[in-house]
TrEMBL record:
<comment type="similarity">
    <text>Belongs to the UPF0145 family.</text>
</comment>
<dbReference type="InterPro" id="IPR035439">
    <property type="entry name" value="UPF0145_dom_sf"/>
</dbReference>
<dbReference type="InterPro" id="IPR002765">
    <property type="entry name" value="UPF0145_YbjQ-like"/>
</dbReference>
<protein>
    <recommendedName>
        <fullName>UPF0145 protein ACS04_23570</fullName>
    </recommendedName>
</protein>
<dbReference type="Pfam" id="PF01906">
    <property type="entry name" value="YbjQ_1"/>
</dbReference>
Length: 124
């Protein structure tokens, strides 16, 4: 897998929603604050990856199967976040964050959350 498989979610060009981790977007003005939005998913690891991870942890190194699963899980949570923002009329999400927790020892819960807003280009 290449770097594109391990980096960031979809861009604004693909989704119509800009997602940033900052409080504002340079060159844009917040016209309306919609409120908190989130995307949530819980994924379990299959038995093969758990066994492979257990063996790999004894010799060290990256757990590539688990890394791939976590990237896919984060991307799914972010896609759900974007859909929530769009459904409420937003075209941007400010202060996006991820929260990752273990879910009852059977999987990983990933929540992407932020503030949905409507932004417009600032007058020059």
């Amino acid at each position: 897998m290449g770097i594109e498989d391990y980096s960031g979610g979809p861009g604004a060009q693909q989704t119509g929603v800009l997602v940033v981790t900052t409080n504002d977007v340079p060159g844009y003005r917040v016209e309306r604050v919609i409120g908190e939005v989130f995307g949530l998913t819980v994924r379990s690891r299959h038995l093969g990856s758990q066994i492979g991870a257990g063996l790999k942890s004894m010799i060290g190194g990256e757990l590539k199967g688990l890394t791939k699963t976590l990237v896919e899980t984060r991307n799914q949570a972010m896609e759900r976040l974007i859909e929530a923002a769009k459904a409420r009329g937003g075209n941007a999400v400010l202060m996006m964050r991820f929260d990752v927790t273990e879910a009852a020892d059977v999987g990983t819960e990933v929540c992407a959350y932020g503030t949905a807003v409507v932004i417009t280009p600032a007058a020059s």
